[in-house]
């Protein structure tokens, strides 16, 4: 269920946000009964503390501890902790926050209401919030709905989210916003020149496919989102150990993220010509599986030596990126759960992005900070180009040596983009390993909110 704000009402319970060290300032204007209650309950303004002030019949107000600036710098969406702790009721933020902090708190409240309840009752958030004055409620509700879509898709196991079901979700989204969706499936991929998408997915009972959606005014700036849709990754014939296979339902996290972002863009009617391309496959094992040592010819014509069938994501993305590049869009964004190397470098919360466009990099860094959607730039390091050139083919899908794995994967993808106005690749984890404020354990939408900010900033006026 999509989280929305409560209707404004005079009965909404006020929330006073109190920073550590400023409690006495607030208490100075309160009656002795309130001062006594606050001290008796040990409320100090520590980050995440919540205290209800009774009025003899119900709740007079709530106090929310906001800690220090140093405390808050260690994370984001702290107001999600407040939302989760509040008793049932309708609330409004009365004091203690303003500007961007108020907007972040309102979005955190919505995001904290997310529950994945497809397979069991996950409960509901009992508290609701009236959108603060000066903040566009619909915009935040749209963003929360896009994040929820991404999380739902990632959280659903491959038994119910294979290529067939991902196609259904893709087409349902297109239908909801009047977009045009096209699907190329099975052996038709060979006829339409998507050989690497076909090779990676041909061993599965569910045929591989290329999903292609277009929306918006055909004369508007072209923004193309490409998402890795590997619905489950066994590793292929280079089979993963069980410990590495347990979370592979999330290997379509790039596809899930671009669908969440696409939903935001379409719902907000951003004036772009949006295209979304998802190669949807399952990297399975059968007699028909592609093999180590095979050499595949890509849509672009570049040949690729397969040195590890578990480096399959870059193969399907290569054909999809080549297709995207053919119409020379203003921007191509590639999102994928691509390498373990990115996680080793930056951990699960901080996705790296790669771009040669310094202006775009600056915009992404500023947006990531502004909307609390962390990103970190890593380089397309030209000195490593030789690492992806095996000798008997144009490219190597899995360079030996183990060094710079996230960079060599990004360099591989860059070979398939030549004509776009700008290009960025995001190597996301797509998963929150342990629950955090407004971010439950499970599928995570990473980078989409920052990208929305950048796309609106660049093209929001229709230029």
Q: What share of residues are in beta strands?
A: 15-25%
In the CATH classification, which architecture of the largest domain applies? 3-Layer(aba) Sandwich
Average pLDDT, all residues: 96
Distance between the termini: 35 Å
Give unreliable regions as ranges.
none
Protein name: Leucyl aminopeptidase family protein
Keywords: Aminopeptidase, Hydrolase, Manganese, Protease
Domain Cytosol aminopeptidase: 308-315
Family: Belongs to the peptidase M17 family.
How would you portray this structure in words?
The longest helix is centred in the N-terminal third of the chain and has 19 residues, at 137-155. This protein is an alpha/beta fold and 463 residues long. 34% of the residues lie in helices and 21% in strands. The chain has 16 helices and 19 strands. The strands form four sheets. Strands 6, 7, 8, 9, 10, 13, 14, 15 and 17 form a nine-stranded mixed beta sheet that branches. It has a five-stranded mixed beta sheet with strand order 2-3-1-4-5, with helices on both faces. The chain has helices at 23-27, 32-40, 69-72, 79-85, 99-111, 137-155, 163-176, 188-191, 195-201, 242-245, 253-267, 313-325, 340-346, 358-370, 405-414, 448-459; strands spanning 13-19, 50-54, 59-67, 89-95, 127-129, 180-185, 209-215, 222-227, 229-233, 273-283, 295-297, 303-305, 331-336, 352-355, 376-378, 395-396, 422-427, 431-432, 442-443. The mean pLDDT is 96. It has two domains: 13-135, Leucine Aminopeptidase, subunit E, domain 1 (3-Layer(aba) Sandwich), CATH 3.40.220.10; 142-459, Zn peptidases (Aminopeptidase). It holds the Pfam family Peptidase_M17. Keywords: Aminopeptidase, Hydrolase, Manganese, Protease. Residues 308-315 form the Cytosol aminopeptidase domain. This is Leucyl aminopeptidase family protein. GO terms for molecular function: manganese ion binding; metalloaminopeptidase activity.
